[in-house]
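User: Is it possible to get a 3D structure for a protein together with its bound compound? The compound here is iron/sulfur cluster. I've pasted both below.
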Amino acid sequence: MKYAYYPGCSLDSTGIEYQLSTKAVAGTLGVELWEIPEWNCCGASAAHNTDRLLSLALPARNLALAEKEGLDVAVPCAACYSRMKATEKAVRGSEDVREKISEIIEMEYGASNRTLALLDVFTNQAGLEQVASLATKPLQGLKTACYYGCLMVKPPRLAEFDDPEDPQTMDRLMDALGAEAVSWPYKTECCGAGFASSRTDIVLQMSYEVLRLAKTAGAEAVVTACPLCMLNLDMRQKEIEAKNGVAIDLPILYFTELMALAFGHKPAAIGFNKHFVDTTPVVRKVEQGRRAKEVQP
Amino acid sequence: MKTIELSSVLTAGKAFTAKVEADSKVNVRSCYQCGKCSAGCPAAYAMDYAPHQVIRMVQLGLEDRVLSSHAIWLCASCENCITRCPRDVDLPALMDTLRRAAYKKGTVAEKNVALFNNLFLQSVETYGRPHEMSMMMRYNMKSGQLMKDVFRGPELMKRGKMSLRPEKIRDNGAVRRIFGRVRASSGGEQL
Ligand code: SF4
Ligand code: SF4
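Assistant: Yes, that's possible. Here is the predicted structure of the complex:
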């Protein structure tokens, strides 16, 4: 399996663990990721807040580069995924848009290729049976809250691979890796990422609700597929604890980190040491479970 | 939350409603004010008008009031409302159109959101990708907000998550030309 790979701006910086673990997982699964050469920023919310044409043209340049190679595009970040999906649909749906966008990006782009969420690629496209068979170091009952956030599965018009209110892709993945996915109500609520730089008060409140409900549901870790969710839930967790006078202590991990861990990659090589909230309890719990299983098979 | 005085409906407001409908391709008249969008909106608690009131203002043509509201900037574009709306009213798309209209009119109520968007896009135009460090400095200078609250630069750098130097893509100016052509176009609302 070969895909064009659009890492997006976070994966070289704040989302470095996502990048490291994605490459590790792709290697084990035998998925070839061809990074789009000299890709540009998708424009994020800044572009669609400001100018519709710009919000379609910036993603289109990347999608057109992939289309030339005849490849579907795998996108890790939920926000980039949503922007690229919106562009793909707009271009496919209207000849006028297609022409205008092709003119603006100086390249033909006909949306003949598809944009896929990396989560979709590593689970549904690769096959969960294959994933389970490669999980030689299963995650022995680790209790996880699968957090999809807003843009990975919503709106249904754009994100088509799972249910917008009660998605299951990550839950099934946890099952295949030997972990447990707790049932909780905030799977698809927003962390407030859009305000991270302007109204941190709102981010702290919205992210607090997500963490509080994951904790209440008995999770030992939150699993995410979005670098913006990660930044809010991980980096700001201490601040959220202080503001609300509570202890949360919930490690936040990318689904790719848990996949790579179950595939036997070393935690330090896939970014476990780069988080703000200590992730060693997760590694310890998984190792303990494994040892216990070895004693009583 | 503020109240809306319904009797101030103006005939002049009809043109505004029509323009917003055309630009956003959202049929705002199909909204029957059930309030489901506001009930499930994670940001409604911070808004001056709840999301269903934003629609109502557009239905009534209350241009100045809706374009200077904080609500349109506090929408997180999380897509909860459109996922649940029984009338399939694309409220996030409407919010986008209203924000762009507020920019044009110069009635942006949440100055820091707009400032951040501008700095972000400037950075993308220059380098092809945003550079957090330089954005952080300028944002800090212009917004008067403490940068440590916003970007946490030092902590990120310690973990190898933020670099001092911008990463510039080699695209022979393709991204700059995209910005230039977009500027020369009329914004593409009509597409
Ligand atoms: S949920 Fe839909 S119909 Fe109900 S108030 Fe909101 S936009 Fe209108
Ligand atoms: S998209 Fe905006 S208005 Fe709709 S629920 Fe989310 S924050 Fe509220």
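The beta strands of chain A are 2-5, 32-35, 73-75, 115-117, 143-147, 180-181, 221-224, 252-254. Chain A touches chain B through 63 residues (CB under 8 Å).
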